[in-house]
Write a structure and sequence with these properties.
With about 200 residues, the chain is an alpha/beta fold. The protein has 6 helices and 9 strands, in the order βααβαβαββββαβαβ. A hairpin with a 5-residue loop joins strand 5 and strand 6. The radius of gyration is 23 Å and the shape is elongated. Bound molecules: zinc ion. Zinc ion binds next to loops.
Length: about 200
């Protein structure tokens, strides 16, 4: 849960909150108040409609900030913004990525591969429909690599964000700014420091 929106006609909302019956944690989670013309069931319907609009607006503003910020940083040319799947994953693994931005319909999977001969493990990116070719193990050279797990990239990023302290921002692919970001490849990262290749 990200927040609570309280709705009702006139002063009833504030009276409700100020009544002292609410747990402080609930009170802290209140993000906004919505005026409704009705109470009862009609009021709830009205509240849901208005709250949806409110959350949509908030999301729009946030996505605009994220994408604008990213484009600005990329345009500064200081090497603190990177985009593309490979580049972003590289930035995460090196610990340089601070914020990773990805569109919610980005199609890629990450497979964890382990070599049966030498136990070498690696995470391999599989974009779109690319088939899984069994390659030679980079460590021992034998063709004994096996796929242990295969997970969608969003799930993988979730794990990585915990591991490396990366913040992941998922942008809706259907919004104006999501579409702009998609044109940049749909995935990118803001870096803590410049990467030297
Ligand atoms: Zn091997």
């Amino acid at each position: 849960m990200k927040g609570i929106i309280i709705g009702g006609p006139g002063y009833t909302k504030r009276d409700f909150v100020n009544s002292g019956h609410l747990d402080y944690r609930v009170e802290q989670s209140i993000i906004d108040y919505v005026d409704t013309n009705y109470s009862g069931e009609d009021g709830i319907r009205e509240l849901v409609d208005k709250a949806e609009k409110l959350l949509e607006d908030a999301r729009y503003v946030k996505e605009k900030q994220i994408v604008d910020g990213f484009i600005e940083e990329a345009a500064r040319g200081m090497g603190l913004a990177t985009y593309g799947l490979k580049e972003t994953m590289g930035a995460i693994r090196s610990g340089a990525a601070d914020i990773v931005i990805i569109v919610d319909d980005f199609e890629a999977n990450v497979s964890r591969e382990r070599c049966k001969t030498c136990s070498f493990t690696d995470d391999r990116l599989i974009k779109g429909e690319e088939d899984e070719r069994s390659q030679a193990c980079p460590s021992c050279g034998k063709s004994t690599l096996e796929t242990e797990t295969k997970i969608p990239i969003l799930e993988y990023l979730d794990k990585m964000s915990e591991l490396y302290g990366v913040k992941v921002e998922v942008i809706s692919s259907r919004t104006e700014y999501g579409k702009i970001f998609k044109q940049l490849g749909g995935i990118g990262a803001l870096l803590r420091y410049k990467l030297t290749y």
